[in-house]
Amino acid sequence: xxxxxxxxxxxxxxxxxxGTVPIVRSPQYRLGxxxxxxxxxxxxxxxxxKNHEFAQVSATExxxxxxSARFNLWKPAxxxxxxxxxxxxxxxxxxxxTNSLKAGWxxxxxxxxxxxxLECPGFVQISNKFGPDAVLAPLSRYAGDQFEISTYIxxxxxxxxxxxxxxxxDLGYWPxxxxxxxxxxxxxxxxxxxxxxxxxxxxxxxxxxxSGHFPSEGYRKASYIRNIRYVDExxxxxxxxxxxxxxxxxxxYGLQRGDIPNYGTHFFYGGPGYSDKCLV
Length: 280
Known about the structure:
single chain; globular; Neprosin PEP catalytic domain-containing protein
């Protein structure tokens, strides 16, 4: 089938003066949003690997100096302070020496389930129009219009910094000086979805991944990541051909390669979480 999509936008109805950047207010100060701050007794450790589940593909057979993809946007349901996201990972090193860069979209009900955007030191914002926590809209509709964003992470060979570009807008960069293993290049690039499963009361979470529907439902119903590409040492961009798939729990969230002609290398991913087949 020949698919057509629309581009989503980063939303912001104002612009900072030249030489300054927008700073997003902490969630509890956002007008119209209700949040419940975590207490020590109910805070979920989103950095605990055992809580995380994935549906992703990875390229591991080269030296990578950047990666890109187009993601269709959804608002998956999340529960218990968990999150659901779709992103690109660039990784170097292993174990305690691992460095990683990640960029994409997330849904977590404005809960504080990790350290993202400008909440951690390191990322240097340069855009005076949009921040890395900007709202993305419109969202895709089940069996309806599909809205996408493009995400591109690339290494500037002169400065060594890793830049983030969204919808052709450079938002800022990660200085190479903050990394050890990623100061030069990435060993692995991955694209996919991720959720946190708190496993409350011994059952699997109902937090959705992507559209909340399995990949078998296909275009306009399942979430997808398309035109997955990597950057080589010369700065040339290549379509990814050889990847390996990793799905934590196929009965809860799935992954399936697509065959839409104008989508390059792409795959569908996601699922509803808890069901009669996804119990724990």
